[in-house]
Design goal:
Layout lengths: L12 E2 L6 H4 L2 H10 L10 H11 L5 H4 L6 E6 L2 E9 L2 E10 L2 E5 L4 E9 L6 H16 L9 E17 L3 E13 L3 H16 L10 H15 L1
Parallel strand pairs: 1-4, 6-7
Antiparallel strand pairs: 2-5, 3-4, 5-6, 7-8
Helix pairs in contact: 5-6
Length: about 230
């Protein structure tokens, strides 16, 4: 649990992306982030701009514009925030809730909803298993909202744009040809509950040991030893 010497406020909201990336990384770094606000610096140039471009392209579009295989529906919202009720762990509510920002929210003709995550990849590859917990977390928040009406999620998936080749010339300007791929993700609420239980168990316990291959922890340890030897 967070101590009185914490340098930052302990978090009580779990980010859906942390269930994918942070959980798969170093659990000591994860623990420090949630208990002391110490987050590993990140630098991802263009990622935010490309993601926003992709989301905005589908504003107001129908599901047939996304993938012909999808049920009839429309893009209801993009870049919206969700917050869940308190997450149950072993039958009792924890102090944690899901809070995050989805990419596309779809409203289907039958009154159910879909969550779509937009991805811009160098190469088209299937990463549905990696992102399944993240999208399931958005679905959990929509179906178990902290406030407001619950929304039944009937579909989840990734909308992937991947690079093919440059297009254009020096006189007209250049662009990029992109491959458009729809990758559905099956619902699995039970797997999410297991991930959330494990996640909360780790961040609520004592600080775990560093992952042996954690670049950040290894750098800090090496730096500490080097500076201490001076």
């Amino acid at each position: 649990m967070a101590s009185s010497t914490a340098v930052g406020k302990a978090r009580e909201f779990i980010s859906p992306s942390d269930l994918t990336f942070s959980w798969g990384g170093c659990h000591r770094c994860l623990w420090l982030s949630y208990n002391h606000g110490l987050r590993t610096p990140g630098f991802m140039p263009l990622v935010g701009d490309l993601a926003t471009m992709q989301e905005n392209y589908f504003a107001g579009k129908t599901t047939s514009d996304i993938a012909p295989v999808l049920p009839a529906g429309k893009v209801l919202d993009l870049g919206g925030w969700v917050k869940s009720s308190l997450i149950p762990v072993n039958g009792s509510p924890s102090k944690y809730a899901i809070r995050g920002k989805y990419d596309l929210l779809i409203e289907f003709a039958d009154g159910t909803f879909g969550i779509i995550d937009c991805k811009f990849q160098a190469k088209d590859s299937d990463k549905t298993d990696l992102y399944q917990p993240q999208l399931e977390a958005y679905a959990f928040a929509l179906e178990n909202p902290a406030t407001g009406e619950a929304r039944k999620v009937s579909l989840m998936g990734l909308l992937v744009w991947s690079l093919l080749e440059p297009a254009g010339d020096v006189t007209k300007g250049f662009g990029l040809k992109l491959k458009h791929t729809w990758r559905p993700i099956e619902r699995n609420p039970q797997a999410l509950q297991e991930r959330l239980t494990d996640f909360i168990t780790v961040v609520d316990a004592k600080m775990p040991v560093a992952k042996p291959v954690c670049d950040m922890c290894n750098y800090l340890q090496s730096r500490k030893e080097f500076v201490g030897a001076e």
